[in-house]
Amino acid sequence: MRLLHTSDWHLGRSFHRVNMLGAQSRFIDHLVDTVREHRVDAVLVAGDVYDRAVPPLPAVELFDRALHRLAGLGVPTVMISGNHDSARRLGVGAGLIGRAGIHLRTDPEGCADPVLLADEHGDVAVYGLPYLEPALVKDTVGAAKAGHEAVLGAAMDRVRADLAGRPAGTRSVVLAHAFVTGGQASDSERDIAVGGVEAVPASVFDGVEYAALGHLHGCQTISDRVRYSGSPLAYSFSEAAHRKSTWLVDLGPGGEITAERIDTPVPRSLARLRGRLDDLLDDPAHTVHEHSWVEAVLTDPVRPDDPMARLAARFPHTLSLAFDPEGREDDSGATYAQRLRGRTDQEIAEDFVAHVRGGAPDDAERAVLHDAFEDVRAAAADGQEARR
């Protein structure tokens, strides 16, 4: 069975105030062409269809056209909600849409209810695990505690239990939206835990032939059976080195996996330039970037006059300008957000206490901080669900 794995469309998102709807529409054209050209048997969309819970109308219209075109191909599509999506809004009409071969999986209650596909070698059970917010779904999936690893592990236990009751030789595929240990993040993903991403081990997906992941925007292979497709378009300059693509996955009769990357259309290349303004304007090595979207970091000791206009004369698509003067005490160029990347709320708070008081918090104080953050997470999750 041939599967096309994609995710993180983020319909409605812009790139540094540049409207990306046209590029997103061209990606949908490419997706449909790929399904037809490569004789794909099923399309897998692993979450973050939209960029926000209440997407703009043009994004909704593009999504509607995409669904009609995929349904028109007669090729089943399985799609889950991500942390950017409103699961309830995305899942409206799922039962009716499913009759057209578009299977929306947005309800955690249905984690162990697969879409059953078949080829000449037998059944393939495709399980869609929507993004699982721990505080909201702990009881639904039967997790022992409210954590990303706990709830995803509990959901996968339900998947494996359902699979065990199916005929021998049934192959299985899981869609999930999560941060898996070993994955490389970029600047454009929204954290799925307050203050930092809580990773889960790849072993949580043991027992299935293929795990089609969403959330991280770089295409990457965690293992032969656990992969991220990445976003089809770049949404931050941290993705300048990404090769944007989808995975074309062949699932063999005995569960064998082979995968090939299919490049997606690039609306405009990205360039990250650093140096003194005159050097950036004069260096012939930068000619290749004159039509790119440009992020420039100027290192002049003194801020030059009218730098954006001067840059735009050579690089008319300059979208981001920052200054990092040579010779300053801290020349690392790291932003505040970058210095905090990978640190949890708990670690940041403990460091603050130690800095202000001159001594680290004790065990009792750390427990108080932990309980406070858990209360905040629960309150935020309740508020998000109420807004949906």
Automatic annotation (TrEMBL):
Signal peptide: none annotated. It comes from the Bacteria. GO terms for molecular function: 3'-5' exonuclease activity; endonuclease activity. Keywords: DNA recombination, DNA replication, Endonuclease, Exonuclease, Hydrolase, Nuclease. InterPro entries: Calcineurin-like_PHP (IPR004843), DNA_Repair-Maintenance_Comp (IPR050535), Metallo-depent_PP-like (IPR029052), Mre11_N (IPR041796), SbcD (IPR004593), SbcD_C (IPR026843). CDD domains: MPP_Mre11_N (cd00840). GO terms for biological process: DNA recombination; DNA replication. The keyword Nuclease applies. Residues 267-355 form the Nuclease SbcCD subunit D C-terminal domain. Gene3D superfamilies: 3.60.21.10. Pfam families: Metallophos, SbcD_C. Residues 1-91 form the Calcineurin-like phosphoesterase domain. Heterodimer of SbcC and SbcD. SbcCD cleaves DNA hairpin structures. These structures can inhibit DNA replication and are intermediates in certain DNA recombination reactions. The complex acts as a 3'->5' double strand exonuclease that can open hairpins. It also has a 5' single-strand endonuclease activity. PANTHER family: COMPONENT OF ATP-DEPENDENT DSDNA EXONUCLEASE, NUCLEASE SBCCD SUBUNIT D. Belongs to the SbcD family. This is Nuclease SbcCD subunit D.
